[in-house]
Design a protein that fits this description.
5-stranded mixed barrel; DNA replication; 39% strand; mainly beta; ssDNA-bd; DNA-binding; NA-bd_OB-fold; DNA recombination; 8% helix; OB fold (Dihydrolipoamide Acetyltransferase, E2P)
Length: 173
Amino acid sequence: MYNKVVMIGNLTRDIELRYMPNGSALAKSAIATSHRYKTNTGEQKEEVCFLDFNIFGRSAEIANQYLRKGSKVLLEGRLVFEQWTAQDGSNRSKHALRVDTMKMLDTKADSHNVVPQQGGMDNGYNPQAPQYNQSQAPQSNVGQNNYGGGMNSVQPQEYSIPEIDIDDDEIPF
């Protein structure tokens, strides 16, 4: 069996970062993509697809640091079926994207419109930010916790990637 999804789109909301009991980071958000086509009558139509996604590990921390609502991103991963019980006792379910690879597609011009998160730190977009593959991302330290510190607190590493210039007309959907 084969389960692979590649999506290019914009974030519909800011990244929500949490830490699991084992210390691993988990980022949640949603992506919106669109598909334009002509009907038999020649009318232009547009379908929009919204999909929640999850990113784990160091890639989740990077996504939280550099991505904001409206950021353009390429996500590659697999669909998973999530089930839970709502507060009213009803069973709920949805499909979500479990991200393996994330590439930030914003340009420098787009990054100037990003508003940093509250909390005193400038977490705005950095055009020097790397592309992250879940399997290549460094593992989080055992001493870190969801309170932002710990015995083995580590400073973020500096990375450099080439700038990507993609026009909306070049995207095949």
